[in-house]
Specification:
Blueprint lengths: L1 H16 L2 H9 L5 E8 L8 E8 L4 E7 L3 E12 L2 E7 L2 E3 L5 E3 L5 E7 L8 E9 L5 E11 L9
Parallel strand pairs: 1-10
Antiparallel strand pairs: 1-2, 2-7, 2-8, 3-6, 3-9, 4-5, 4-8, 9-10
Bound molecules: copper (II) ion (CU).
């Protein structure tokens, strides 16, 4: 948890220090959401699933509607929550990203689920992700990121 807090603090510091001109340009260019700190969980041999996590920020309200990766046969958006004392995981149609609020995809919460992963993801591997967002006008806003594999305990999944 402290790692996430730290990286959020760094992110905030960076956005504050952006020159005013750069901020204006970003706003003019249809405001593609900004994805930072993307990482995926390393996999143990024999496993076929992993999770991808990241921070998402957008100047306008958008929804993350699709995630894709060449390393996985199937990618879904998931949310984990506690229900009757049991951790439950559910597929989501979309992840809401309100304007100017950092949405944290993190272990134990919302995540991008990588399934049917063809080759176990090892520490330091770079996993390409293509994220498709939609704004109010329903036009796709595509963001490509490389998530770096890390060996953090995700607290995830028995599946
Ligand atoms: Cu999941």
């Amino acid at each position: 948890m402290s790692i996430f807090r730290l990286s959020c603090a760094v992110l905030t510091a960076v956005s504050i220090s952006l020159p005013v001109a750069a901020q204006k340009n970003a706003a003019a260019a249809a405001a593609v959401p900004v994805v930072t700190d993307a990482w995926v969980k390393t996999m143990v041999p024999g496993a076929t699933v992993s999770g991808a996590y990241m921070h998402i920020k957008s100047a306008q309200p958008v929804k993350l509607v699709k995630a894709e990766s060449p390393v996985a046969g199937l990618v879904e958006l998931h949310n984990m929550s506690m229900k009757d004392g049991v951790m439950e995981m559910k597929a989501m149609d979309a992840v809401d990203v309100p304007a100017n609020k950092i949405v944290d995809l993190k272990p134990g919460g919302m995540h991008v689920m990588l399934m049917m992963v063809k080759k176990p993801i090892g520490k330091g591997d770079k996993v390409p992700l293509t994220l498709t967002f939609e704004g109010a006008d329903k036009k796709p806003l595509v963001v490509k990121v490389e998530a770096v594999a890390q060996e953090k305990d995700s607290g995830l999944h028995k599946h």
